[in-house]
Amino acid sequence: GQKNSGSDNETGNKNEDGIKFAVLFGAGGLGDNGYNDEVYMGAEMAAEQFGATFDYAEPKDVAEFETQLRAFADSGEYDVIIAISTEQVDALKMVAEDYPEQRFCMLDTIVEGYDNIHSISAAYPDQHFLSGVLAGIATQDERFPLSNPENILGFTIAMDTPTSRGQAAGFIAGAKYINPDVEILTNFIGSYKDPATAKELALMMYERGADIVSANAGSSTQGVFYAAEEKNRYVIGTSLAMIDPDRSLAISLKKVWLFVVQEIESIHNGTWEPGSTVLGIPEGVCNYDTTGLNIQIPDDVVAILDDIRTKIANGELTLPTDLDQIDEWASQNQYHR
Amino acid sequence: MEIIRMENISKIYPGTVALKGVDFTLNKQEIVSLLGENGAGKTTLMKILYGMTAPSSGRIFYKGEPVRFKRPIDAIEKGICMVHQHFMLVPAFTVVENIIAGSEPGSNIFLDKKKARQEVIDLISRFKFNVDPDAKVEKLSVGEQQRVEILKVLYRKADVIILDEPTAVLTPHEVDDLFAVLRRLKDEGKSIIIITHKLKETKEIADRVVVLRDGNLINDNVDPRKVSTKELSEMMVGHEVNLQARRPAKHIGEVCLKVENLTVEEDGKEKVKNVSFAIHHGEILGIAGIEGNGQTQIIEALTGLRKPKSMKLTLDGKEVTGKSSDFLKAGIGHVPEDRLSMGLVKEMSVMENMILGYHRESEFCSKKGLLLKKQISQYAEKLKKDFLVKAASIYSAVSSLSGGNQQKIIISRVFSREPKAIIVAHPTRGVDIGATEYIHNQLIELRDRGAAVLLISADLDEVRALSDRILVLYEGEIVSESMPGELSEVEMGLLMTGGNYMVEEGKQRD
Amino acid sequence: MTFNAEVLYSIVASTLRSSVPLILAALGGCFSVRAGVSDLGLEGMMLAGSFFSVLGSYITGNAWLGLLFGMLFGAVFSMLHAVMHITYRVNASISGMCVNLLATAATPLLLNEIFGMSGKSPIVEAFKKPDWQWMNNIPVVGRILGAQNVLFFVAILLVIVSWIFMYKTKIGLRMRMVSENPHAASTVGLNVTAYKYFGVAMSGCLAGFAGAYLSIGQMNLFVEEMTAGRGYIAVVINAFGKYNPLGVFGGSIFFGFFDALQTIFQNIFPSQLVMMTPYVFTLLVIALGLGGSRGPAGVGKHVDN
Amino acid sequence: MIKNIDNARKIKMGSSFMNSAIALVISLILGMVIIGISGYSPIESYIAIFGVSLGTLKGFALSLSQATPLIFTGLAFAFAYKVKMINTGAEGQLYAGAMAAALVGAYITNLPSGVHALLGFAAAFLAGGLAALFVALCKVYLNANEIIVSLMLNEIIIFFTSYLANGPLKPPGSGVGQTKMIEDTAKLTKLIPQTQLTTAIFIAIITACVLAYLLDKTVFGYEIKVTGHNLKASNVAGINVSKISLITFALSGAIAGMGGAAMVLGVNYRFVEGFSSGYGFAGISIAALAAYNPIGVIFSAFLIGILKSGTITLNRTTSIPVELVDIIQVLVLIFVAAPALIKSIMSRAKKVRSKSSREEHMEVKTSDI
Ligand SMILES: Nc1ncnc2c1ncn2[C@@H]1O[C@H](COP(=O)(O)OP(=O)(O)OP(=O)(O)O)[C@@H](O)[C@H]1O
Ligand SMILES: Nc1ncnc2c1ncn2[C@@H]1O[C@H](COP(=O)(O)OP(=O)(O)OP(=O)(O)O)[C@@H](O)[C@H]1O
Ligand SMILES: [Mg+2]
Ligand SMILES: [Mg+2]
Description:
C: mainly alpha, ABC transporter involved in vitamin B12 uptake, BtuC, 12 helices, D: mainly alpha, disordered C terminus
């Protein structure tokens, strides 16, 4: 491996033996069995693959983002500083302006127009779209033993933020795309760390006839899984760490760890460039996943999912990005089996 | 037979020595009166006996056995009960609940309300007390509350009963009733310790008098029948005292304060019913009456603390309306009935308390709302000197002063503003003889300088000694107006309890 | 949105389930206030209960023992409040906040120290929802009660027992006397300090129970800050219910009901506004003068010796 | 005479200062023990916490900037406490103030820079004050418990501002609930470039001084103290207790609101949903630490600011859990809030010392024999 010698000299005393990078986690912090943990996993993978080392910080509030980024930048030790959550955009832009020679990376959000920021993200709806399609099929398909005759699904969201609404929109669009009459119950928990409320909401969804509930809710997701266990229905999580082998219909995967690995790889290869990279279903970064699950998805269903994935990759199908757009989108886009 | 002996009791509070090696004994079937000025240590001695505070040194013997009372419950178990100087009642509880709490009937964990109620009713009828067992205490008059306190003690079947100033809030008639009860209890074999500042009462009820002064035992075997009240008070104070002698007004002037059609409504009931009266310059008008007959409401109306239903108040012909600050500004001074809760801020300094209520006057406060600290401290020093307030400095907290000196702060504050009229309520309640004498003199001086004084007091002797004219208040109405000496104490007592017919009949017979 | 009997059943069942932790914590608040100590520390005691019940269940493998552990440590945390306020005369709002701060700091730390995990604990043995088939035969009520956890019934029992304790027993009367007028209580020979400690310890136990209900009753693990402000809501409910176990029960059901209703209204109105409504309603009730009594007269007062 | 007062006050302040200092030392020592027990090096931790916070310019600036919102909320609590009201609503008032400042900062344009920022503070002052006034009205006229009403109003304000930030006020394309960025003219001047230390700290300190002056030197302050100590006596003294309570509590809320403005105009440059990590509640401890003295609040907030800034360093440079610092913070609060606790510890220590010295004495004697 060769180091990116050009920028090395400019920014001073960088670790000569290997790449050193820093990660600024989201306010939720590690241990969420979700996004933050997956980024951490990516950092470890990158460290191992490229012999890199990394430091990280778990900020406690919004005001701390800027301080931590500055401190990382100030030390001049890092080849790249990675900010991982949407709330950090403001801080990142401010700091990036003050340290033009320092490379930054923004994950999961598009930031453009800076010479020292590279952003890698997936389109919000992509993560859950294919799972939505699968759920839309499964709820009406007798080959899925835990589903019921009713045509109802559920989606629980931690906080009512634009990002979360975009993610939910992906799931709902997926389900309606294949099953236009499906009803999708959506609920907001109000916290990333309140599994008890999450469980209660999921229980009510199941009681109201939903047979598959998907969750994108940080640590609160645990509650949805527990509700699925109690009701013996399907559940869809967002992380490899968050599965119930007998009841997880799929995992709505966004392979954020790949973002980190790619980023470090580009540094390692000297191909790092500012700008933005958007990845998603076409690149295989977002997908439904069944690793470690005991549920058999019939081949014809897999074929449909593959077909839809191709359509998206071709650009035949573009996805809606907010809950408000769904109805209109669904009336225009329908999949005919 | 000796039932209690306290030996060489000392109590040191941070900053004060409350008791210095006091010995005290109590015999069976005996009523002992404990005398002493404010701060002499009477309450402290009794609190030690009752297990509420630990003595710094000394020993207590109960029937010859040495005992250590760590908590009141230890004393209660030995049959020692105490009625406190300040009421120890729960306003939100009923009379029954207040009486039984802590010594409920029955042996299981559940509360037997029926049995408790029956026991209390029996007790009430046995001692001919007039209290509703199911009434909430917050609705009771002060006298009734006092009776509940005594019922609490009786309910606990105490052998030794300690009463700390039980008569301060009672009418003469109620005092008689109380004393009758005490005598009956004595006949039943109980021993009683009573603390009072009224020497007349001491002479009437006590078998033996014990005198404390400044934490020292002065004499523990005075026979009340063999000493005069003058001698008793000199024992307490340590020097000669001039007892209240009437000093009638020299020249009564024009009408100063005129109150017409005063009606006050509270909780939908008329507490003061269309009362009118006038006070002249240089006159003390006394209002006698049992507490709870509308005194508080009259005071509040005349000081602007409460909006009466109707009232026309004029001061030297000018009408006064508005808030209490307007009344103060108009020249109506106010010595409130409870010095600590209404008249003073005990956490603040003597100096700060000496301008309370007058702090917005231009003497103490600039137009921009700044306090003129230099003027204020000079003023406070002057008052401290003029009114003989005993305090370490004007910067000491009021809480560090004795009751009498606390009262002096209020007196100095109000009197030195030369009010045209002044409302004075219970000015000497709980104040010792020395300070009482001083306050009375100040009142008379103020009157002689031309102020109109409205004196409201539950102490009939005080009203009779100071007033130039006396009204009797009963259930919110003025039932009698008389000149001092016109009516006997008994007659006034009857009027105060609603017996005006009898008085009038008596007069007609004369 | 179809609005049928199913939905109705589900709302009622959910109301009961989500009111349980509120009932328990606010009941704890009752004991505290009715012994004369303000109850601002419920949140912290509850969080401690959540964590330690999980730890207890983890160690023993038994949910009941876990619950016991949770209650015990709820009480242990309440003792910080008790010692500061009762013995050292600190303002109760401050000592209460101390408990909250301590629990928020200590639980993640212990999570890290004991389980080596951050954010949440491993999954432990929890109270399973009992399978009461026979209940389903009882019309209406059976379906709703059948959807409840055993702890729900324990909570109801505790409400009744607490009410009897406070209003029908001698100790209850004495404890209330302490809260109304500690001086009076001490003069009739009651050990005011002991009663206050007892009330606070009970509040710790019950808040610990409430926390345990969240972590091993509703759920099967601990998540940092999982009480999510329920302790503060319990403080509100306690005042709303006039510091009476029955009132507290009613107030908790009220809040639980709003929680359950949210699931339906969130799809119609912005979620934040829906979540805001129970507070607006409570505030209105207080503004109309129907609730929010000042409580026992002697709360926060001390007796000198 | 004047000297006399000053002396008396000095002694009082001095003893409460001593008390706080001892409390600090004890809690730092206990903190070391806890860190040690948790298996980390106490020395290394303390170097990380204090070395950077106090030893470097940026660290020092960070400590000050962390202290800024805390001064406001600490003052808010301390001031309301002067009339014996407990302002648990500072968190909500902070949010209300932040939203108001963000609106003024973003939607009013063409103002000179200092004026714009001050207008932002004024709006926050008003918003926080109105929120608190509502609580005070409920207390004064409906006899409601201010703690309870404040707690509810907190939730209402936080949810409502969150609704605004996610709904009507959300700038297009934003991934989080927040309002539009404020104009440059509304941004506060940085005192040290590349830090979050802005002129807000001056506004905070000035506010503290104004409050101290108000309480000590004015009739209004006198009336506040009288009202706080004895409600009945202040009525009798012709003080309009309702008015004093309303004004004091509203001012308390207004000060908390200014804390929100400091965060928006100086740090985040817009209202961000959930921006406060409990600054409002932290105010309670800050005020208690300062024994409710406005000037003391500056120092206690600075102390907590040091610890918070230490936490930030610790977080980045070591694997020591940051909650350890929070624990130290609680310890400080416990010991400062309970002066009696310190006293009993000190007297016990003295007893032990005198006992041991007596024993020494005896030893000498016996050896003499
Ligand atoms: N506890 C938390 N507090 C604050 N923000 C959080 C928290 N957990 C997650 N987030 C943020 O919310 C967004 C979605 O987080 P979530 O934990 O639901 O991730 P996930 O379910 O793994 O899906 P993901 O892969 O979205 O983006 C991310 O931007 C993340 O930074
Ligand atoms: N808790 C206390 N702390 C400090 N000093 C006290 C305390 N209680 C009483 N004292 C002081 O002890 C002395 C004796 O007080 P005590 O109450 O026994 O007097 P007393 O004779 O009952 O007076 P009074 O007639 O006013 O009731 C007084 O100087 C009083 O200020
Ligand atoms: Mg179905
Ligand atoms: Mg006394």
